[in-house]
């Protein structure tokens, strides 16, 4: 297992996982001279953290499990790569003899971390494994270049690395959400970026350890840039690693054009020396600006297909209404909504299409676990009203739809809403005797429902049934005590799932209980005012792919 950052670190302004191969030493609070640097949006600047709320975290001896994966030698460098279970690993003390032999070996202590918000995506795990070898190699080449080259603009606070017993560096992979928070905290820039470099070197302290700092890389932004630049995610990650490493070694492309040119050249030299693909990040940023293809990360990027692999699901289940929610105004499921549902399913989230009023509930293997039928007297009265006033009525009985006469609105229920084609029964008695009836729907204009049907039947049912509306031009009569919310409760009990594990999306009044029950209830903007009043969030409309937007923005 590769190390993941603990909740303590995730809530702290200093994103850091410490892996140490030497004795921990007491260190003072860092001064405002500690710098963080990044690139890759025009507003990205090298900066100093806010001293008022800056704390330096040196976390050691935590008692958590750890494992030293590999130690190997390369000329005068002994590279020790650490990985642990979640949290921080214990301190390992170097033998006394090893501490006295710094002229023979310079120990490179590298920690590769995966932020807890990232799921166990195979490609990300593979990249983290490759970085265990790539990072020490890149450090060696960068240090050798410092000895063999002369630079005019580099900050020489780190001069001769050979004067240290060991050098420590951590590299963390995260998603846009995490790096965006860091960017906001340290730079007051409320957007994601590709890489942040966080120096922990304190000039003037006579220490045997060079704590180089931290490099934080958003693999989500890196994946977009890799696609735009025509190479792989590991290629882009290496480009970002080189850029971040050079910042920690004193290069800063933002102080002057000369400094920018010097760092740009050094990026190219390092990448070529390492045999890694891609241009340096500074050159790539120039190319992006030239082609007007520059990208600034935002939460909308989750709308891109495949982006959910950088996030863990927040919910086990998504309950989604059909009419007016998943279906747009043309009663179609958009391609965007279909892709979002498919991607959620691929990430292990179960999707329940909550249509109807909870009158019939199906559990595992499609087994019926609940059924509720309308009172026969209510059914008779409704049929007689329909016949006398020539208001079309549909009776729902299992998988059948029954009616008393032909009408264009009856046909629309089949052609638009894809309900079974209604069977015309010769009389009221024939309809009532055909089968048990779960619900009835009157079809009329929105005005006719509001002025005539709803007032009449709200009183006429007399507690024997409930009157509800999902859409303006239909009035539904259902058994008392039944609702979509009660059906959801029955299903959750059957599945052994708590309400905290579900997110619900709806639009109609019949969705109110379901939205209230869910840990997160989302009403689409095309929904009724009563529904929007109880929702936690009001999302985009059903004609604006509201379901997809809700999944990408809130489910992960």
Automatic annotation (TrEMBL):
Tagged with keyword Chaperone: no
Keywords: Endonuclease, Hydrolase, Metal-binding, Nuclease, Zinc
GO BP, sorted A to Z: rRNA processing
Entries under SUPFAM superfamilies matching the protein: HAD-like (SSF56784), Metalloproteases ('zincins'), catalytic domain (SSF55486)
CDD domains registered for this protein in UniProt: HAD_Pase
PROSITE patterns: COF_2 (PS01229), UPF0054 (PS01306)
The keyword Hydrolase is assigned to this record: yes
Required cofactor(s): Zn(2+)
Gene3D superfamilies membership: 3.30.1240.10, HAD superfamily/HAD-like, Metalloproteases ('zincins'), catalytic domain
InterPro entries xrefs: HAD-like_sf, HAD-SF_hydro_IIB, HAD_sf, MetalPrtase_cat_dom_sf_prd, YbeY, YbeY_CS
Any coiled-coil regions, as ranges: none
Record-level Gene Ontology MF annotations: endonuclease activity; metal ion binding; metalloendopeptidase activity
Family (UniProt): Belongs to the endoribonuclease YbeY family.
Protein name as catalogued: Endoribonuclease YBEY
Natural source organism: Populus alba x Populus x berolinensis
């Amino acid at each position: 297992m590769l190390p993941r950052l603990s909740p303590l670190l995730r809530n702290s302004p200093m994103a850091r996982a410490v892996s140490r191969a030497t004795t921990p030493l007491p260190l003072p609070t860092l001064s405002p001279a500690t710098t963080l640097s990044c690139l890759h949006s025009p507003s990205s600047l090298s900066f100093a953290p806010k001293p008022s709320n800056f704390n330096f975290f040196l976390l050691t001896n935590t008692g958590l499990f750890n494992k030293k994966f590999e130690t190997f030698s390369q000329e005068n460098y002994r590279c020790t790569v650490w990985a642990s279970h979640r949290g921080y690993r214990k301190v390992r003390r170097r033998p006394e003899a090893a501490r006295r032999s710094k002229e023979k070996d310079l120990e490179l202590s590298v920690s590769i971390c995966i932020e807890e918000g990232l799921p166990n995506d195979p490609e990300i795990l593979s990249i983290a494994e490759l970085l265990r070898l790539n990072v020490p190699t890149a450090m060696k080449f960068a240090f050798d270049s410092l000895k063999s080259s002369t630079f005019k603009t580099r900050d020489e606070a780190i001069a001769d690395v050979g004067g240290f017993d060991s050098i420590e560096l951590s590299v963390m992979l995260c998603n846009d959400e995490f790096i965006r928070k860091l960017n906001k905290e340290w730079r007051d820039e409320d957007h994601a970026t590709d890489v942040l470099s966080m120096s922990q070197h304190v000039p003037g302290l006579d220490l045997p350890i060079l704590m180089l700092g931290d490099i934080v890389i958003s693999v989500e932004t890196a994946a977009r840039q890799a696609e735009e630049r025509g190479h792989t995610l590991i290629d882009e990650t290496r480009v970002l690693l080189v850029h971040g490493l050079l910042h920690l070694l004193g290069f800063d492309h933002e102080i002057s054009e000369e400094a920018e040119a010097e760092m740009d050249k050094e990026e190219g030299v390092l990448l070529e020396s390492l045999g890694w693909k891609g241009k340096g990040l500074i050159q790539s940023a120039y190319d992006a600006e030239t082609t007007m293809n520059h990208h600034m990360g935002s939460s909308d990027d989750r709308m891109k297909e495949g982006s959910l692999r950088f996030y863990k699901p927040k919910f086990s289940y998504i309950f989604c209404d059909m009419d007016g929610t998943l279906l747009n105004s043309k009663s179609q499921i958009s391609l965007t909504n279909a892709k979002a549902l498919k991607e959620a399913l691929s990430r292990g989230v179960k999707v329940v299409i909550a249509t109807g009023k909870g009158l019939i509930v199906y559990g595992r293997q499609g087994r019926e676990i609940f059924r509720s039928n309308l009172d026969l007297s209510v059914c008779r009265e409704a049929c007689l009203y329909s016949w006398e006033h020539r208001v079309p009525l549909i009776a729902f009985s299992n998988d059948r739809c029954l009616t008393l006469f032909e009408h264009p609105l009856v046909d629309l229920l089949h052609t638009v809403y894809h309900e079974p084609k209604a069977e015309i029964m010769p009389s009221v008695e024939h309809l009532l005797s055909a089968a048990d009836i779960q619900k009835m729907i009157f079809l009329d204009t929105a005005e006719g429902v509001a002025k005539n049907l709803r007032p009449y039947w709200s009183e006429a049912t007399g507690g024997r049934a409930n009157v509800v509306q999902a859409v303006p031009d239909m009035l539904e009569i259902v058994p008392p005590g039944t609702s979509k919310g009660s059906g959801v409760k029955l299903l959750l009990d059957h599945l052994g799932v708590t309400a905290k594990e579900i997110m619900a999306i709806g639009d109609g009044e019949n969705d109110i209980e379901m939205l209230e029950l869910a840990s997160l209830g989302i009403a689409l903007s095309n929904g009724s005012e009563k529904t929007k009043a109880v929702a936690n969030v009001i999302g985009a409309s059903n004609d604006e792919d509201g379901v997809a937007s809700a999944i990408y923005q809130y489910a992960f």
